[in-house]
Write a structure and sequence with these properties.
54% of the residues lie in helices and 16% in strands. The protein has 594 residues and is of the alpha/beta class. It folds into three domains: 221 residues, Rossmann fold; 132 residues, no CATH class; 147 residues, no CATH class. It has a six-stranded antiparallel β-sheet, with helices on one face. It is elongated.
C-alpha cells in the first residue's frame, strides 16, 4: 500500500504531503481544485509519462516522492502513520521485508531493499523535460520504474471504462479470468509450427515454369561458385603477393645490397665477417683481461644475430623470383574473386550461399517427395493445433459461464437489477478455423434492462453503466490477486442516486482486501471513506495554491454537506451528513460479515 505521497511544484500544488491509510481513501473538492493532480503525481512517481508542462509556473523543476509499504497484510481500519511507526518498532528488521512481485523486481534489477521493509520512490522532472527516477536511493530508468509501479498500484482513470469498448480485448479479459495462459501458450507454439509448415509447402508448391526458372538460376550460381574454388582469406593473400611482385625490382635491389653489406662481396668484407674478426680478437685478448670476456660473449651473440639476418635476407630474395606469367595469373584470379565478392559479399558469405543454394536446388528437384512429406507433417501439426485449440476453447467456455455469473452478481450489487451479462463466442476467421489466439472470438454483451436482448456494450451502456461494468469486471478479474493499491479517478462519472451508493459500498467492500484511493464528487461514495481528504484551492498574492487536508469528523460533515447542497451549508444539510456517516458506519460493520 502507499503510505505517503510528497508533491512539490506539480501544477497548482506548490507543496503537499498526503499520508494515506489502509482501507478506502477518498479525495474530494471543488471542480478544478486539483484532485486529479494528486493522481497525476502518483502516476508520475510510478513510471507514468510526464512532461515539463506539469511543472508549476515559475518553478525550475517538479518532484514527487512516495513511500510504499513492502508488506501485504495491511487491513482497513486506518492505522495512522504514527501508530504504524510504533507498531513497526516492535518488529525485528529482518522480518520487515518486501514481499510478493515487488521482491522479484528488486532481485531482477539488483537493487537493495530498505531495512524498514518500505519502498522509497522519487522522481524529479526538470524544466528541460528530463526526469531522474530513484528507488531506495538507487537511480533507475522510467521503464524500470513503470514495471515496479505496475506491481505497487493499479490506477483506473476517468475513461478507463472505455477500454471495455475495445472488443478485441474481451478475449484477453476472459483468458485473464480463466487462467488460460498455459493452454494459450501451448496452442500458440503449435500454431506457429503449423504456419511454418504451410510456408514451406507454399515455397515448394510453385508452378513448373517458375520452378524451371529457379532451377536455372540456382544451377548458374552454384556452377559459378564451384568453378571459383573459393578459400577464405585467399583474396588478401593474392593481393599481398601481387603488391610484392609489382615492386619486385626495387625490392630485389635493396635486398641484394643489404645482403652484400652483411656477407660482403669481392672487394670488401661484410658485417658478419667483421663481427667474427672482432670476436676472435677479444677472445684472445681476454686471456690478459677478464673485462674483455663479457664483450667477447656479446660479440658472439651479435655474430649469430647477423648471420640470422643474412639468412632471412637470402630467403626473402628467393620469394622475389617469379615466373613471367605469375603476375598475369594473379591479376586474373583477383578479377574472379572481385566479381564473386561484389556479387555475394565476402568469401565466407559466398561459400555460405553456395551451401544454401545447393540445399534449395536439392529441395526443388526433390520437391515431389518433399511435398508429400511436408503434407503429412502438416496434417500432424493441424491435428495437434486443433486439439489444443479445443482444450483452450473448453476452458474459455467454462470460464465464461463463471464470469457471466460473477459479473452479473457484481452488477446487481451496483444497482443494475435487470442486468444480463453474456459472453458470446464466434468462430475465429483464420484458416482452418484457427487464429493466433485459438478457434474463438469472444464478445461481451450486456442488457441493462429486464426484457431487453443483450447487445454490444458500445451500443447499450450509458456512461454511468459503463463505469459500473468496468468496476464489476475489474473487481472480478482482480479477485484473489495481490495488485497493490487500487486507484479510481472519478469512477462516479454518469452515476447518481442509489447507483452511486452501491458504487460506494462496492469500493468499501473492495477496500477490505486492499488499499483503495478514490477521487469523487459524490457524497454517496465519499461517506464510505475510511480516510477522507479535502482538496482545497486558494489564491494568495495573485498565485493559486492547492492544499490537501485530512478531515476529522466535523470536517467530513461539512464536506459531505457541501457535496450534497453546495456552498449553502445549513443545519439540515449537516444533520443529513451526520446521518449518512452513521449509516455508512453501520454498513461497514456489516460488510465484514459479507
Amino acid at each position: 500500500m502507499i503510505k505517503l505521497l510528497h508533491i512539490e511544484n506539480i501544477a497548482v500544488i506548490e507543496k503537499a504531503d498526503v499520508e494515506f491509510t489502509s482501507g478506502l481513501n477518498v479525495l474530494t473538492g471543488e471542480t478544478g481544485a486539483g484532485k486529479s493532480i494528486v493522481i497525476d503525481a502518483l502516476l508520475a512517481v510510478t513510471g507514468g509519462r510526464t512532461s515539463r508542462d506539469i511543472i508549476r509556473t515559475g518553478a525550475d523543476h517538479a518532484s514527487v516522492t512516495a513511500v510504499f509499504s513492502g508488506a501485504t497484510d495491511d487491513k482497513p481500519g486506518g492505522n495512522t502513520g504514527a501508530k504504524r511507526a510504533i507498531e513497526a518498532s516492535f518488529v525485528p528488521a529482518q522480518d520487515q521485508r518486501i514481499t510478493g512481485d515487488s521482491a522479484a523486481w528488486f532481485d531482477d534489477n539488483g537493487i537493495e531493499a530498505d531495512e524498514s521493509g518500505d519502498i522509497f520512490i522519487s522522481r524529479k522532472i526538470s524544466a528541460d523535460g528530463k526526469s531522474v527516477c530513484r528507488v531506495n536511493g538507487a537511480p533507475v530508468s522510467a521503464a524500470q520504474l513503470r514495471e515496479l509501479g505496475a506491481v505497487l498500484v493499479d490506477i483506473h482513470g476517468q475513461n478507463d471504462g472505455r477500454k471495455l469498448l475495445d472488443e478485441s480485448a474481451h478475449l484477453n479479459y476472459l483468458d485473464l479470468y480463466g487462467g488460460s495462459s498455459g493452454e494459450l501458450a501451448a496452442f500458440q507454439e503449435s500454431y506457429k509450427r503449423l504456419c511454418g509448415k504451410k510456408t514451406e509447402i507454399e515455397k515448394l508448391s510453385m508452378d513448373e515454369s517458375e520452378k524451371a526458372r529457379r532451377i536455372d538460376a540456382l544451377a548458374h550460381q552454384i556452377g559459378e561458385l564451384e568453378r571459383a574454388k573459393l578459400r577464405v582469406g585467399e583474396y588478401d593473400e593474392i593481393a599481398s603477393r601481387r603488391e610484392l611482385l609489382l615492386n619486385a625490382s626495387k625490392l630485389t635491389e635493396a635486398v641484394e645490397t643489404a645482403f652484400e653489406a652483411m656477407y660482403g662481396g669481392d672487394n670488401a668484407s661484410g658485417a658478419v665477417a667483421l663481427i667474427s674478426d672482432a670476436r676472435d680478437l677479444t677472445e684472445r685478448a681476454a686471456k690478459h683481461s677478464e673485462g674483455l670476456r663479457a664483450i667477447s660473449r656479446r660479440l658472439l651473440d651479435l655474430q649469430y644475430t647477423a648471420q640470422d639476418i643474412s639468412d632471412e635476407l637470402r630467403d626473402f630474395r628467393a620469394i622475389l623470383d617469379y615466373s613471367p606469367g605469375e603476375l598475369d595469373g594473379l591479376e586474373a584470379r583477383l578479377d574472379v574473386l572481385k566479381r564473386i565478392i561484389r556479387k555475394y559479399g565476402g568469401e565466407a558469405e559466398a561459400l555460405a550461399y553456395l551451401d544454401k543454394a545447393m540445399a534449395e536446388l536439392s529441395d526443388i528437384e526433390d520437391s515431389s517427395n518433399r511435398l508429400e512429406k511436408l503434407e503429412k507433417e502438416l496434417d500432424i501439426c493441424l491435428k495437434e493445433a486443433v486439439n489444443l485449440a479445443d482444450t483452450l476453447s473448453k476452458k474459455r467456455k467454462a470460464a465464461a459461464t463463471a464470469l457471466e455469473a460473477q459479473v452479473k452478481d457484481e452488477l446487481l450489487q451496483l444497482n443494475m437489477p435487470g442486468v444480463e451479462f453474456v459472453v458470446r463466442f464466434d468462430d475465429a476467421r483464420g484458416g482452418d478455423g484457427l487464429s493466433p489466439t485459438g478457434r474463438d472470438e469472444a464478445l461481451f454483451l450486456i442488457s441493462a434492462n429486464a426484457g431487453e436482448k443483450p447487445g454490444r456494450i458500445s451500443r447499450i451502456a450509458s456512461g454511468g453503466e459503463l463505469a459500473r461494468i468496468m468496476l464489476a469486471l475489474k473487481n472480478v478479474l482482480r479477485a484473489g490477486q495481490d495488485t497493490g493499491a487500487m486507484v479510481f479517478d472519478e469512477i462516479d462519472a454518469g452515476v447518481s442516486g442509489i447507483a452511486a451508493q452501491r458504487v460506494g459500498e462496492k469500493l468499501s467492500v473492495l477496500a477490505l482486501e486492499r488499499q483503495v484511493l478514490c477521487v469523487t464528487h459524490l457524497p454517496q461514495i465519499a461517506v464510505m471513506a475510511d480516510t477522507h481528504f479535502e482538496i482545497l484551492k486558494t489564491v494568495s498574492g495573485g498565485r493559486t495554491f492547492t492544499h490537501v487536508n485530512e478531515l476529522d469528523l466535523e470536517g467530513r460533515k461539512k464536506e459531505l454537506a457541501r457535496l450534497s447542497g453546495g456552498e449553502n451549508i445549513t443545519i439540515t444539510t449537516l444533520t443529513s451528513a451526520a446521518e449518512q456517516l452513521e449509516a455508512a458506519g453501520t454498513f461497514k460493520k456489516c460488510r465484514k460479515k459479507m
